[in-house]
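1st attempt posting a full record on here, be nice pls
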Amino acid sequence: MEIMSESSQNNYVVETDNLTKTYGSKTVLDHVSLHVAKGDIYGFIGKNGAGKTTLMKLLLGMSHPTSGEMKLFGGEKLSVARRRIGALIEEPALYKGCSAMENMKRFAILAGADIVEVQEILEFVGLGDVGKKKVGKFSLGMKQRLGIAIAMLGNPELLVLDEPVNGLDPEGIKEIRDLLLRLNHEKGVTVLISSHLLDELAKVTTRYGIINKGHLVEEISAADLKKQCQQKLHIVTDKPAVAAKIIKKLSPKAVITAQDNSIDAVGITVDNATINKQLVQADVNVESITFAMDSMEDYFIQRMGGNK
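the predicted structure (as tokens):
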């Protein structure tokens, strides 16, 4: 079963409930419940093999779930809803011996889109003046922009983009970044985008989903992430394991890493005086307790299982 039963009113363009995909004995997606709201630029974060591309393929009908449910555009029939989605999965499949215009016209016919809009889209992505230049001679950035242009055929309300800046130089990354912002701000397109370039993703993303080994670890808004990354608690103590349990009880959503004689905690929701008092009462010797800035990269890495 794919369609979710009607639930309370929301503004989700994509909603999954316990979506699971297995290949034989291997579980690639494990009960993933993801929510992409209308107007989001949703950054899907995870290591290679975490399940990002698999989930995108399920949404697009390129693969089928083992179990769980999907809801697109509030519960519209999937075969209809997918007509409102444009996608670029991995690298674009282009006719390298043809021009950008010829590529667009061919894909417009396949998509049942209006050929009249082709030139307008090419101009929007910055390829309106490439003339008869063969796509095979395009830079990687130009090919990616053409891939996004093809995905825009039919005026989709949602774009699903899998690693669209992978392998691009800084200029190419900026071009794609600016294009996504224009699509979102000027055309109101919702974007689901995966990338491992966290710093670049942070410049456009409004909401994040963090996936690790098929599990959706967390969904968090860009605003809340900024707050979470403001401070990291560092405690030097003779009983780090005990201290970690106490802090976890005080702040259940905190992510805690214990070392031999210290702990680091991100996402603390109580003040250090309260923490120190609880530790002392539990006979935990606290040599020092300090707050330090934590980077967004550290935040993601901790939730993706560590190791950069």
